[in-house]
Specification:
Layout: H1 4-13, E1 37-42, H2 44-48, H3 71-88, E2 110-113, H4 115-118, E3 123-127, H5 128-139, H6 154-190, H7 195-206, H8 213-224, H9 229-232, H10 237-253, H11 267-283, E4 312-317, H12 337-348, E5 351-353, E6 361-364, E7 371-373, H13 382-391, H14 400-405
Parallel strand pairs: 3-4
Antiparallel strand pairs: 1-4, 2-3, 5-6, 6-7
Helix pairs in contact: 3-5, 5-6, 6-8, 6-10, 7-11, 8-11
């Protein structure tokens, strides 16, 4: 994995400094963490577990223990008992029933913060409550006849549903990281920034329209990648098929751009869409002139620069118990711009100086590296907090309470 500091060094050497953005940019696709929410970090290994590959029914010990006693999961299990119990009473199988009615996914269920704009705050963010909602929607799409002895395996079934719901969001957001990774490759090979002009001139003007190809392909990619061994080895066939059925049903309900994913599910149409997107990024125009088919001689250009297995942040209500295993810090490690700036000034000798572009606040201290913090944020991203703690002496993010109390 390429360290974030190394990526930032490369960007700065090309005149791109995410810590000093050129004015205030609008990011309609990026969610904000609210004052009533907290955030914790997790990793792909902690979500999926580690251990032997094999049929999903054989690897329950790899997953976190999920029990019906967990208040949120008890509702999920009751839904299973109602839906799956219907099969036992002669109810229609999932494939024979009309597709269940779904609500269109809420905006900002999950989002990706590009390192080009967010620096240390980059990564995938997922709101936990939508994982629970997605678990319930998957249940309604599963043919429970294909999930043997489900009633005797509550812990395992809940874990498989949780992994499936996580993947529903994670794979979509990871595609956006692949697009940014393509931008990095262009930056290194041409010494010219293509990613930010594409975002400003193509992606954002077309966002929530049928022409937003990146969102169409992100949805299609999440559907197509459900056949990967890493996922298949942990979830049995009936639940995998239920998730696929859910995604297809959801695509039609989503806003323009997202909904067009149905046009890119085959190998041919997906590849053609990917080639056109690459041309859009290179030329920073919605209708590129270069033949998209030329990309066929340079396959795999849009692949992930990093595994993005650790830069995963889960947002949940203050005081709620984490659904996933947390890694680097506990829930509640969040802070507003004003509180963090006040602590740095009061306890650590920093002063606010001119130079923070847009609403960003720049702080300076003799003999120390400057600190730049996004302004007017009710909750700063974990990456920004980690950057500040690194500047103060390499402290872990769990030391944030001591920072605010002046105890370091």
């Amino acid at each position: 994995m390429v360290p974030t500091s190394e990526i930032l060094d490369v960007l700065r050497s090309r005149g791109i400094d995410p810590e000093e953005p050129d004015g205030d940019l609008e990011f309609p696709e990026i969610g904000q963490i609210g004052e009533d929410e907290s955030v914790y970090a997790t990793s792909l290994d902690d979500v999926l577990g580690s251990g032997r590959e094999g049929d999903g029914a054989q690897v329950a010990e790899m997953l976190m223990p999920d029990t019906v006693e967990d208040g949120r999961l008890s509702d999920v299990w009751r839904e299973i008992e109602v839906i799956a119990g219907d099969f036992g009473n002669g109810g229609a199988r999932a494939g024979a029933r009309p597709l269940p009615y779904f609500e269109a996914p809420e905006p900002h269920c999950a989002w990706y913060c590009p390192i080009h704009y967010f620096g240390h705050g980059w990564g995938i963010y997922i709101r936990e409550r939508y994982v629970i909602e997605c678990m319930i929607e998957i249940i309604r799409c599963v043919d429970w006849i294909k999930v043997p002895l489900w009633r005797n395996r509550p812990q395992e079934i809940l874990s498989q549903l949780k992994v499936s719901a996580f993947y529903c969001y994670y794979l979509h957001e990871q595609f956006h990281h692949k697009v940014e990774s393509f931008g990095f490759r262009l930056l290194l090979s041409t010494n010219s920034d293509r990613f930010r002009p594409y975002k400003a001139g193509v992606y954002r003007p077309s966002f929530l329209t049928k022409d937003c190809l990146e969102e169409s392909l992100a949805n299609a990619d999440s559907y197509r990648r459900l056949s990967e061994p890493r996922y298949m080895s942990r979830v049995e066939t009936g639940i995998r098929q239920g998730l696929r059925r859910l995604l297809k049903g959801r695509f039609h309900l989503q806003p323009p751009g997202y909904a067009e994913a149905v046009n890119y599910l085959s190998d041919l149409t997906y590849r053609e869409g990917l080639h056109r997107l690459q041309s859009q990024i290179v030329e920073a125009t919605l209708n590129p002139k270069s033949p998209s088919a030329d990309w066929s001689i340079a396959p795999n250009m849009i692949t992930a620069l990093t595994d993005i297995t650790d830069e995963i942040y889960v947002v949940l209500p203050q005081g709620a118990r984490p659904l996933f295993k947390k890694t680097s810090f506990d829930p509640g490690a969040t802070i507003s711009t004003d509180r963090l700036v006040a602590a740095l000034k009061k306890y650590y000798g920093y002063v606010v100086v001119p130079g923070g572009k847009g609403s960003h606040v720049k702080l300076q201290k003799a003999g120390a590296q400057p600190i730049i913090i996004p302004g007017n944020r009710p909750v700063l991203s974990p990456g920004v907090v980690k950057q500040v703690l690194n500047a103060l002496g390499g402290y872990p993010i769990s030391k944030l309470p001591q920072v605010l109390a002046g105890q370091l």
